[in-house]
Amino acid sequence: MRPSPSRLLNILVPVKRAVDYAVKIRVNPQQTGIDTNVKHSMNPFDEIAVEEAVRLREKLKASVTSIKAITIGPPKALDTLRTALAMGADSAIHVEVPETQPAPEPLAIARTLKAVIEKQNAAATKPEDKIDLVILGKQAIDDDLGVTGQMLAGLLGWSQATFASKVDIDVAKNEALVTREIDGGGEEIKCRLPLVVTTDLRLNEPRYASLPNIMKAKKKPVEKLSPADLGVDYTPQLETLKVSEPPVRVGGGKVANVDELLAKLKEAGFP
């Protein structure tokens, strides 16, 4: 028989299609951003998030009723969702935007995720159908902003545990014990569910999707939505004036003593 804990977890995992981590980043000729005509893959921190959701289900068994992946991006982002499904997610949502549209800003993404959560929770006929745990990467490696999770928690009024390196959930007590990465080492915090968790590198090592799971992923359901369906406006609030590559580093030099070092610094314009 299925156990009947006080809460059954329904996990949402946002994932992003980003420039592959192994690609050398270059600025586009217009200097409006980076060249995106390169290989893309799932944001590495989001891979960690998917892996953690799957591990929680393996640990908590039937207490995890569903793992749903979601992405906001152009049609090509469907490949990112398929990767998440092959890793172990049960279903997915694709909020599709035109290829030519700039990537949504973190606040717009957080509002989109909030709208999806509220839409599903309002339609849920049973408590176990409600989303009560969101796990996402602490940042995307393309913009490195690292604020979407915090904004989402603030909009929802949920608990948040950022930069997680360890996550333990006690379903019976309706709480989570999370170890966070901080400058001084690790910090343990106890959170009540519902909860937003952002993942750090030390949390886990994502698994490779096996060929059978890749084939099975093609049959898993993917719901397609538009920003208009969710009442979200993706009009940019920020304006990028110019993007340029950092100056080329030049070789250093040797000095014989401190006096010569000070003289060189003065020549370079340092007081």
Automatic annotation (TrEMBL):
Would the keyword Nucleus be found if you checked this record's keyword annotation?
A: no
CC cofactor: FAD; AMP
Enumerate the subcellular locations listed in this protein's record, separating them with semicolons.
Mitochondrion matrix
Pfam families found in the cross-reference section:
ETF (PF01012)
User: Which GO terms of the cellular component aspect does the record hold?
Assistant: mitochondrial matrix
Q: Give the matching CDD domains.
A: ETF_beta (cd01714)
Q: Name one GO molecular function term.
A: electron transfer activity
Keyword list (alphabetical) reads:
Electron transport, Mitochondrion, Transport
Q: How is the cofactor bound?
A: Binds 1 FAD per dimer.
An example Gene Ontology biological process: fatty acid beta-oxidation using acyl-CoA dehydrogenase
Q: Where's the Electron transfer flavoprotein alpha/beta-subunit N-terminal domain?
A: 32-234
Record-linked SMART domains: ETF
Instruction: Determine if Protein biosynthesis is one of this entry's keywords.
Output: no
What family does this belong to? Belongs to the ETF beta-subunit/FixA family.
Please describe what this protein does.
The electron transfer flavoprotein serves as a specific electron acceptor for several dehydrogenases, including five acyl-CoA dehydrogenases, glutaryl-CoA and sarcosine dehydrogenase. It transfers the electrons to the main mitochondrial respiratory chain via ETF-ubiquinone oxidoreductase (ETF dehydrogenase).
Assembly description: Heterodimer of an alpha and a beta subunit.
Protein name as catalogued:
Probable electron transfer flavoprotein subunit beta
Origin organism of this chain? Pholiota conissans
Tell me the organism's taxonomic lineage: Eukaryota, Fungi, Dikarya, Basidiomycota, Agaricomycotina
